[in-house]
Amino acid sequence: MMRFHKVTIWMLLLRVIDVWIGKESAVTKWIIGISLVLVLSGCAGTPENPDSTGQTTQATSTPVPIPPVAERPSVTVQRGDVVDEIIFTGQWLPRDQQELSFEIAGSLRSVLVQRGDSVSAGQLLADYQITELEDQLVTAQIDLETAQLRLETGTEGSADAVLNAQFALADANISLESTTNNAPWTNLESARIGLEDAQRRLDNAQRAYDNAIADPSTPASQVDSAYQSLQDARSALRSAQNQYYAAAQSFNQHQYSLQRAENAVLQREIDLEQAQAGAGVDPEQVQAVRQAQIRVDQILADIARSSLYAPFDGVVLEVNYRPGDQVGAFNTVMTLAIPEPKEVVANLSFNDIQTLDVGMLGVCQLVNRAETAVQCVVRAKPFTSTDADQTVRVAADLQGDLQLGQLVEVIMPLETRQNVLWLPPRAIRTLQNRTFVVVRTPDGDRVVDIELGLQTADRVEIITDQLQEGDVIVVP
């Protein structure tokens, strides 16, 4: 029966092809016909085959495999500490610094030191272009010599003038001897010893405080006492430093007083010589000499104010000007510091500064060198945005060969939540005013509302009684 149907279909197709292609050749007709038959045969499907009972069975189709659905990413609820901290970098610099400036404006002629140089007290560091002053000094000295020569060539002085000049010379010598004997060197040495002693007491207080806070069993009262002792030692050190600087300044002033006393002796010797040359000295000539001397002294004082000297032994931290630059009065030309001790000096925004407190403990380490980490403490910070010093000072006992100005990373914990449940921020979902997570369970995903606690960049404290450590959270 199947064969009959195929022959019938075959004959009908040939008839249709014959009508369709008209006068085409027989070969072409046969080729087209065979192609259509093959196509139809392939589309006809599997013939029905009788089984042993005489009934026909249908062919079974092959199922198409469906690819598995990719599982959505997830995270696990963890228990641990959530720490909010501020991280900043500062420079490793000496703690005690002083900005140096000129009292008058001018143009820099020379800068004799550079950053990192060690200097001694009294060393010339920089000076103004004072060629004009130097020329004026030469002219004034010539005027003084001329006035003195005219005075010497005046009339012979009287016996009274000679006697007065002798007494004046004697007084000048006594003054010089007194000035020489009253040198405040002992005060300067005592101040230096006091400074070293104050530094030693500060080191001991710092060590005692560090030991107190490092031992968890130390009573709070003992820690407070150690901290107060540390603050007292710092105040004592600042007082000792001020006394040392005052003593050094007094010693320098004494040197100037000694020079003036020596000049006074020379002047009295000249007066005596003039008195001995003859009586009747012209008062105008005497006045001319005095005015010339005053002019010389004024120019010397201007030259001194145009020179910058080191007030103490130290190291140069910064030099802000170069030769030829114009400098205003009291503008900071360079910064000088006592080499030890050093600390971390950081420049922060005032908003970040407000998150810190003096006495706050943290960790300091050289940048990218975690093995150098030590405990550190905020020593000082500005309390207003108008404070003269807008830097944060962090005391630390970093070890090793540290370079001046080396970068130090400071990590200060601001708030800590211990042993709490936390998730990464990406696992938390929000919809309008609702905060929730999707928990994966054997029965399917379920939504759990949560409350957020302390939040950081990589951890968020989770407050809820519907989650436990180890729960799997589906990430959006």
Morphology: elongated
User: Quick one: biggest sheet?
Assistant: 6 strands, antiparallel, barrel
Poorly predicted regions: 1-5, 19-29, 43-50
Q: Helical amount among residues, as a percent range?
A: 40-55%
β content, as a range?
Answer: 25-35%
Number of DSSP helical runs: 8
Gap from first CA to last CA = 64 Å
Question: Can you characterise this structure?
Answer:
By secondary structure, the chain is an alpha+beta fold. The chain has five domains: 2-46, no CATH class; 74-82 and 417-474, conserved putative lor/sdh protein from methanococcus maripaludis s2 fold (Beta Barrel), CATH 2.40.420; 83-97 and 335-416, Efflux pump adaptor protein, beta barrel domain (Elongation Factor Tu (Ef-tu), domain 3), CATH 2.40.30; 103-124 and 307-334, RNA polymerase II/Efflux pump adaptor protein, barrel-sandwich hybrid domain (OB fold (Dihydrolipoamide Acetyltransferase, E2P)), CATH 2.40.50; 125-306. The chain is 42% helix and 27% strand. The chain has helices at residues 2-21, 26-43, 131-152, 159-181, 185-214, 220-277, 283-305, 350-353; strands at residues 49-50, 56-57, 74-76, 78-94, 97-101, 106-111, 118-119, 124-128, 307-309, 314-319, 326-327, 332-337, 342-347, 361-366, 374-380, 391-396, 407-423, 429-431, 434-441, 444-449, 451-455, 460-463, 472-474. The protein has a six-stranded antiparallel barrel. Helix 1 (2-21) crosses helix 2, helix 4 packs antiparallel against helix 6 (220-277) and helix 5 packs antiparallel against helix 6 (220-277). The two termini are 64 Å apart. The model is unreliable at 1-5, 19-29 and 43-50 (pLDDT under 50).
